[in-house]
Amino acid sequence: EAGVVQSPRYKIIEKKQPVAFWCNPISGHNTLYWYRQNLGQGPELLIRYENEEAVDDSQLPKDRFSAERLKGVDSTLKIQPAELGDSAVYLCASRGQGADTQYFGPGTRLTVL
Amino acid sequence: GENVEQHPSTLSVQEGDSAVIKCTYSDSASNYFPWYKQELGKRPQLIIDIRSNVGEKKDQRIAVTLNKTAKHFSLHITETQPEDSAVYFCAASMDTGRRALTFGSGTRLQVQP
Fold it and tell me: Which residues are CB-contacts of A108 (< 8 A; sequence separation ≥ 6)?
């Protein structure tokens, strides 16, 4: 079974530029999470989807961040415009219905110059 | 919201020794406590988890204990090996994992051969 897939793995951009990250969860997993992991810290939730519905986005900086999960499968996280403080690893995770375990993708390491 | 504190931040042991990492949580409604191992540049991977209706769980050299009254849980690794070297994160969640995970700040474990 393929795990959670994310792309790109690395992204370097200038500040004020837009950037987008893509996540393909494990097949059949209806819950999808986006986390941000700053260097030396644990992941922190940005947004949680149940199918195509964003059910917890209280931690998402909505002035510059947006996310979508069309058709309840793949998801895209966008930042526009990026700021220096957005440099981090953006992790996607998914969980199957009725299960406890969240499975993480390899993450996208974003560097904003 | 939930707050998870993790100690120590770094831990160095000799190969074959035991390692113990401790976490405390703030919200008594939390009922699911996973532990993730993250190697450098890799995705977090679940190594063991425990629900609040269980006091202890063991899987080969790894065990987790939970004290609901004191709101703390611990990871125990026995007979440590160099490949155990990584960053370990504890986490807490409500609704047995349906909600997002709140992570501790991580413990960098180094096993000296």
Answer: A6, A7, A8, A9, A10, A11, A21, A89, A90
Within 10 angstroms of residue A104's Cβ, the number of other Cβ atoms is 23
Q: What are phi and psi of B96, to 5 degrees?
A: 50, 50
Q: Which residues contact B113 (CB under 8 A, 6 or more apart)?
A: B15, B82
Residue-wise pLDDT for A46-77, tens only, equals 999 999 999 889 899 999 999 999 888 999 99
**Contact at CB, B97 and A99, closer than 8 angstroms:** yes
CB-based contact A106 B43, cutoff 8 Å: yes
Where residue A1 falls among pLDDT bands split at 50, 70, 90?
A: low
pLDDT band at A24 (very low <50, low <70, confident <90, very high): very high
**For residue B91, which residues of chain A lie inside 8 Å, CB to CB?**
42
Strand partners, A77: A21, A67
